[in-house]
Amino acid sequence: MFFLIGAMTIVEIIDLHRGFGIIKKFIKAKNKKHLLWTLGSLAFILSVVIDNLTTIIILIALLRKILVRRKYRIWYASMMVIAANAGGAWSPIGDVTTTMLWIGDKVTSLGLTEYVVIPSIVCFVVPFFIATKLKPFRGYAMRKEMIIDKDAERLLSSKTMLIVGLSSIAFVPIFKAITGLPPYLGMMFSLAIVWLVSEYVKPEKNISQKDKFRYSTHKALSKIEFSSILFFLGILLAVGALETVVFGEIDGNLVGTLRYATESLSNAIPSMNIVIILLGLMSSIIDNVPLVARSMGMYNFPIDNPIWHFIAYSAGNGGSILIIGSAAGVAAMGMEKIDFIWYFKKVSWLAFLGFIAGCGVFIFIETFFYS
User: Fold this and answer.
1) What is the pLDDT of residues 145-190, one digit of tens each?
2) pLDDT (tens digit, 9 = 90+) per residue, 267-321?
3) CB 204: neighbour CB atoms within 10 A?
4) Domains in the chain, number
5) Contact between 354 and 127 (Cβ < 8 Å)
6) Structural domain for 208, as ranges
């Protein structure tokens, strides 16, 4: 929650100083298909460097500067969730679950990349290729530069706040590596730096204190979608309840619902590949963090075993099947008011096809190249 608040506030500060207008100028695509691939590729690449949640927050803020009609924006936002989750799955800092596996000495950064990058690319490309054939991505997009917008002019502080804001977000994994502290503290530290800089830069010449409030962090905080943060809190509380409420007994010990479900699944199905695919599907309903945490406690495979890499892939990409299945999806849901049922009907099947295709590629590579 604090990570989400920090990231969203930084993005809103950049937006108030019109920093995203600089990036928008580099996105020239007017054809909807080209725009889809441009934004999807950007989401896939950015989530490798920063995490998938922050990537979605940044790109949706950018998307609002590009597309006028919300009915098209929610399609692009949903597809970017798939791309961001796919990119984050093969980076040790791209997703909370990969970070957990990396810190827990289950995977190395090189091993994770070697095993998971190709399946993740497939998971990204397949749904995007199919989506280009759908009606919402045909023709030309109604871009905001086609409409007169007096507030779109660049400010004196636009470039400064864009560089400082994005650099501060990118610094979060470095902060974690240096200090060993949780990522949310790194995001809070980054927010403090951005806040400090925003107090001293001048958006306009000879700006008064009254007008400067329009570019302040207080103003940015008032624009945050706190409803999405509260929704995220609800999911975390529900998952916490599933972890702690006793459901059954395993090896003479009373265990919570999640552990009972995952261990029962492992005992009932002999194939580990099928078990991990099912765990990926479960992560679209239940948060992938406790599922991966439970897997780390259940299995004792050596570092960089293919099982760990498959868990990283499945947990990261399985969450795309439902909008509530990943932190990136929840953020997109809150920022663009994406309806759960709409996503389930329109996008879930695309995410599922990409997920299954990537699973098939992973199993094929493991069977024929690494066995």
Assistant:
1) 544 444 556 677 888 888 898 888 878 778 877 887 877 888 899 9
2) 777 778 888 888 888 888 877 777 787 777 677 788 888 889 999 999 889 888 9
3) 13
4) 1
5) yes
6) 2-369
